[in-house]
Amino acid sequence: VEFRTISREDRMKLKASVMRDHIILVGLGHLGRRLANLLTKIGENFVVVVLPSDKEENEFLVELEERGVPVIFGDASSRRVLEEAGIKRARAVIITVDDDLVNSMIADRAREANPRVRIVARIFREEIARVLELSGDVNVAISTTLASSPLFLAGTSHDLELNVPAVVPVRAGPEVGGSSVRELEEKGEVRSVEPE
């Protein structure tokens, strides 16, 4: 009788292979780590895809493993790696790599593998973000420069607490949940921003 032990990487691939309706998080830099923490906090099932070089360089991987989050090592622009992460059964893909071209390639491969998956990509250049959204390769392309510039401007006149939930666009009338927007602002529960 031969006994084999399964490697840590194979255990993670096995766990990812049975996940359904999960999120695939690509990249574990500053943004990827923040998103992994948020996904954990809100109880979302997710798989992380990182390059093999992250095994040695990213201490956050140990923490993810302790939380039971599967980590797939490989290039997310590879169909095989996306399949190991469960792309065909995934609900969404969040791409956080800091290279617009790489992110667009990953989005294209993800869309080919699962036309129904929702894809959100971090993009630095606004023009590329617009092209990706118009092409249909991504559902939401977020230009980090565009997204953060209002915060920089707001910081010139207000103290900002950046550990608050993200700004979420909401179309609402004068009342929200039985309270006026002004009442919610006075309680400090919301800050309203006029649309462009």
Radius of gyration from the alpha-carbon trace, in angstroms: 19 Å
Structural class: alpha/beta
Strand order of the largest sheet: 3-2-1-4-5-6
How do the helices and strands follow one another from N- to C-terminus?
A: HEHEHHEHEHEHEHEEH
Low-confidence stretches: none
Distance between the termini: 70 Å
The dominant shape is globular
Number of helices: 9
Q: How would a textbook summarize the main sheet?
A: 6 strands, parallel
Q: Which percent range describes the beta-strand content?
A: 15-25%
Kindly report the average pLDDT value: 84
The helix content, as a percent range, equals 40-55%
- Strand tally, please? 8
Provide a short characterization of the protein structure.
By secondary structure, this protein is of the alpha/beta class.
Please give a structural write-up.
The chain is α/β, with parallel strands linked by helices. It contains nine helices and eight strands. The strands form two sheets. Strands 3-2-1-4-5-6 form a six-stranded parallel sheet, sandwiched between helices. The chain has a two-stranded antiparallel ribbon with strand order 7-8. β1 (23-26), α2 and β2 (46-50) form a beta-alpha-beta unit.
Give me some keywords for this one:
single chain, 196 residues, alpha/beta, six-stranded parallel sheet, two-stranded antiparallel sheet, 8 strands
Write the layout of secondary structure elements.
Blueprint: H1 8-17, E1 23-26, H2 30-41, E2 46-50, H3 54-57, H4 60-67, E3 71-73, H5 79-84, E4 92-95, H6 100-113, E5 118-123, H7 126-135, E6 140-143, H8 144-155, E7 175-176, E8 179-180, H9 181-187
Parallel strand pairs: 1-2, 1-4, 2-3, 4-5, 5-6
Antiparallel strand pairs: 7-8
